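Re: that chain you flagged

S.,

Sorry for the slow reply, it's been a week of failed gels. I finally had a moment to sit down with the sequence you sent. For the record, here it is as I used it:
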Amino acid sequence: MSAALANQKKTGGADVVKNDILKMLPTLGKGQFVGAVSDKLDAVVEEVLVTGKAGSVTITLGIEPDGLDENKEVSRIRVKPKLKAKLPDRFIADSQFFVSHGGALTRQNPEQIESPALGGGVE
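Prediction finished late last night. Pasting the structure tokens below so you have them in one place:
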């Protein structure tokens, strides 16, 4: 933080700098981040409505120094936006399979005798 900014914040004066997240968000990722957040939000809301279970959208802003001035003070900050969505799990029923003699999974019981009258086996 520059000495001037640090001093402004310490003094609590009228010219204390505040960062406005609402102005900053639309500029992240060359304007693409807000659209990505909206897309994730829509997807989570849709799944919550379908499943009746909770989901979430998490926005993380990584902030790190990215440049020093001639006095070796931070003069530039890099903001790294990250977006995660957790969709609620949909119920998917279990399936049962038989195991063939060779170890392959199959829907047909390999031990079942096939009847030609029912369309199986050789006539």
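What I noticed first: DSSP finds three helices and four strands in the chain.

Talk soon,
D.
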